[in-house]
DNA sequence: CGCGATCTTGAACACGGTCAACTGACGTGG
DNA sequence: CCACGTCAGTTGACCGTGTTCAAGATCGCG
């Protein structure tokens, strides 16, 4: 039995989630627009995969509750975390090129996701150009975020990566109305390392170091930010090396 | 005076470029579809910027000839190369979220690009869902490519990065009908370093090393691949460390 | 020809990876 | 209830890759 569209907006928890949801526009359209299979919900328990690498892309997903990781699967079967997704985030955009998921998504804790079937998404976009444009924006945002991460992975020191990671999570929770100073990492040290391009030992040591400087308090996976300014400052410091390409001289700007 | 759409398909060089062009579909639509400002051409000379960080996004661009780099601009004004673009590639997708370019694109040699005004692109997509879908595919492909680069930057050794870089360029040229074994890098050592997350000294040393093993021949920026197999094999070797997250156990795959 | 930019190579060093020992939390079964 | 095993995390010691600093070589261009 399939829930009618919009039903998930009926309780308080959902209202929080939906307010921040990247698929909000699709959801709204879904409720008022005639047509086939609509948005449904799905639970994913800790450790379960929302989809695996190689699965056909059936849907786009939006996280309603919980925390998921998206991983590249290496030839030897090892995983590298590419991105992390919390409430309101969209998952599955990288599969649109081939209609097959090139990565896998796994729940770090019990999750609830909204599932928007691709066929339905395309139908909505055909009828409403603004909805199509919205999806393009989501795709483009993802690209911009990837660029940031490349710079992190290529050039920052271990301390900068870890500090940046804590600030990233802090900001993301804050933007959803949760505490920016105290939150749960949900990730094991090894997973943080995988996300940051570091070994778990280095992550552990670096967290201890940040705690020793009283910039954060860490107990297991619970973190409290004590000196956000100091963390930010780390990121502004000169990174690993000076191998950057100099600025462009003004004359070289192409006219018009 | 603006060229009529489709004019660029009239000479042989353009036919090669257009065959591989990511905007081909837009171009074709542009030619037959009524409406406002159409695709035009634009030259960008060595060292000139196609657009700068912060510029309003006027258009999407497709490379017709030449080689461009796309750079993140760091707070201190230094540049880090995010991607490289040759004939047939699209530039400017990361600006769609904000309508402002978050990066800059600079010509590494004299270039010619096709310019598709955003307004026109949106017009075409509204009329033709298939064209909108095509752009989504391009966006999604870009995301998938970014993921690969993250793994490279986070986990590969210097030798793997350089070998991978040479193979990447080789493949890209080959797919456009050019030699896969001999080509011009166009980049300075420093720029290769910026692209690969290495110092220019390390790039230089690594190239010397690959040359000493007779896997490649290098003279300045001209490269000849002598043992593609050996280069590929480097990439298959175990990377820097074992800090990967193990495979999922079968039971944890979520049902349906 | 001479100057600056690019590239190569060498030597020393440092960051973070590697290997290993140990702790603590948790769950299971005798 | 405690012994035991497992798994996550911490910390230490060592070491290797790649960065850093420095000196030349080579190239391109006026």
Q: For the residues shown, what is the average pLDDT of chain A?
A: 89
| Shape field of chain A | globular
What fraction of the residues of chain A are assigned to beta strands by DSSP? 15-25%
> How many beta-strand elements of chain A?
11
State the helicity of chain A in percent bands: 25-40%
Largest interface between protein chains, with number of residues from each side: A-B, 75 and 75 residues
First and last CA, distance of chain A: 58 Å
Structural class designation of chain A = alpha+beta
How would you characterize the overall build of this protein?
- The structure is a homodimer of 256-residue chains.
- The first copy, chain A, has 256 residues and is of the alpha+beta class.
- Chain A has helices at residues 12-19, 24-32, 118-127, 129-155, 158-175, 189-196, 200-212, 228-236, and strands at residues 40-44, 49-51, 59-65, 67-73, 79-86, 90-91, 104-107, 111-117, 182-184, 216-219, 222-225.
- The first copy, chain A, has a 4-stranded antiparallel beta sheet with strand order 1-8-3-6.
- In chain A, a hairpin with a 5-residue loop joins strand 4 (67-73) and strand 5.
- In chain A, helix 3 (118-127) crosses helix 4, helix 5 (158-175) crosses helix 7 (200-212) and helix 6 crosses helix 7 (200-212).
- Chain A is globular and about 60 Å long.
- The N and C termini of chain A lie far apart (58 Å).
- The relative contact order of chain A is 0.12.
- The model of chain A is unreliable at 1-10 and 250-256 (pLDDT under 50).
- At the A-B interface, strand 4, strand 5, helix 3, helix 4 and helix 6 of A face strand 4, strand 5, helix 3, helix 4 and helix 6 of B.
- The first copy, chain A, binds a DNA duplex (30 and 30 nucleotides) through helix 7.
């Amino acid at each position: 039995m399939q829930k009618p569209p919009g039903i998930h907006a009926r309780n308080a928890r959902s209202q929080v989630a939906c307010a921040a949801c990247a698929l909000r526009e699709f959801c709204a359209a879904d409720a008022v627009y005639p047509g086939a299979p609509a948005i449904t919900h799905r639970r994913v328990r800790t450790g379960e995969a929302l989809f695996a690498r190689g699965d056909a892309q059936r849907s786009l997903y939006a996280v309603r509750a919980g925390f998921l990781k998206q991983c590249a699967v290496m030839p030897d079967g090892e995983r590298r975390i590419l991105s992390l997704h919390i409430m309101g985030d969209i998952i599955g955009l990288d599969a649109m090129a081939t209609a097959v998921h090139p990565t896998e998504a796994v729940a770090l804790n019990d999750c609830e996701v909204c599932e928007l079937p691709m066929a339905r998404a395309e139908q909505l976009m055909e009828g409403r150009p603004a909805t199509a444009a919205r999806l393009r924006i989501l795709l483009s945002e993802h690209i911009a975020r990837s660029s940031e991460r490349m710079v992190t992975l290529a050039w920052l020191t271990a301390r900068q990566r870890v500090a940046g990671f804590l600030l990233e999570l802090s900001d993301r929770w804050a933007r959803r109305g949760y505490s920016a100073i105290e939150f749960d990492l949900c990730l094991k040290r090894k997973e943080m390392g995988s996300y940051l391009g570091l070994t778990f030992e280095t992550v552990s040591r670096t967290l201890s170091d940040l705690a020793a400087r009283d910039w954060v308090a860490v107990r297991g996976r619970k973190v409290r930010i004590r000196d956000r300014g100091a963390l930010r400052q780390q990121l502004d410091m000169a990174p690993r090396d000076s191998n950057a390409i100099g600025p462009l001289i003004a004359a070289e700007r192409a006219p018009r």
